[in-house]
Amino acid sequence: MSSIITPQLKKMTPQVLAGLGMVKSVDAISPKLMVCSSGHEKRGKTHWAFTAPGPIGCIYTDTGTKEIAAKFTREGKDVYLFHYTVPDKDETTTAKESEWKKVKKTIREIATSGYFRTLVGDTGTEVWETLRMARFGKLTQVMPHNYTEANSEMNELLKVVAESDINSIWIHKVKKEYKGNKAGDKEVWTGKYERSGFSSIGYLADVVLEHDRIRNGNDQLEFGIRIIDSRYEAPSLVGADLTGGLCNFETLALSCFPETDPDYWE
Predict the structure, then answer these.
(1) Which of 61, 128, 132, 180 has the fewest CB atoms within 10 Å around its CB?
(2) Which phi and psi angles does 218 have, rounded to 5°?
(3) How many Å apart are CA 136 and CA 159, to the nearest integer?
(4) Does pTM top 0.70 for this prediction?
């Protein structure tokens, strides 16, 4: 019969551990969510995002965002806007790089300022397009192996946000989904749509959801969200629909962190 030998652990001071880059885990965190959302136009994506806790820092390209932000401002929420434009392919390399640097810097400052509660990317699709224009000068006909540097840069930026203490909501457009046919010689539309943007954001996000008009219990169509994936309370959340009065950030957050006070998410 074999015996179990208790390992003799070496004692290490906090200074030595700090030198190794080690930080002791704490037993409490500041609850926050990174949300990746998508949906067709006019499905309430931006409105839903602004139900998150303020102050909100929003980077945007669509002029309609200003109108929705104004509505929440009138209701007492602090919303700060940063407008940018996805560079045209005919613009100079310097202009494309300059626009991406501004977007990247603003995202980092919102995430690390200690002032904002929520970052809204309206849209994450266009943030990714701005980076691609800076790196490739175009959005099409770029070979997959050339994306290594751009993928790494986007991933690094999103990790800065994920490791900060703010909520973040990355709104995405959708595009038609194409797959090869049985003969393998042509890609055809599957009849479905898929998220348009940086593909790895779904892995980093705490919650992945879709916006749509969803039928409620009375068989009426309402703006709503459908939970596609979740890091928290997954068995009860994934596949759930939140419509009508439940279609807001607070309801989602309380579903993920049921032990928190509703006031925390206002």
Answers:
(1) 180
(2) -95, 15
(3) 23
(4) yes
pLDDT tens digits, one per residue of 113-163: 999 999 999 999 999 999 999 999 999 989 989 999 999 999 999 999 999
Domain ranges of the chain: 30-196
The CB-side HSE value for 253 (13 A sphere, CA atoms) comes to 25
Angle in degrees, CA 130, 163, 240, rounded to 5: 85
In total, the chain counts a number of residues equal to 266
Task: State which amino acid sits at residue 67.
Answer: E
Q: Is the peptide bond before 31 cis (omega within 30 degrees of 0)?
A: no
- For residues 239 and 227, give the distance between their C-alpha atoms in angstroms, rounded to a whole number: 5
CATH architecture assignment, domain 30-196: 3-Layer(aba) Sandwich (3.40)
**Nearest-angstrom CA–CA distance, 109 and 132:** 21
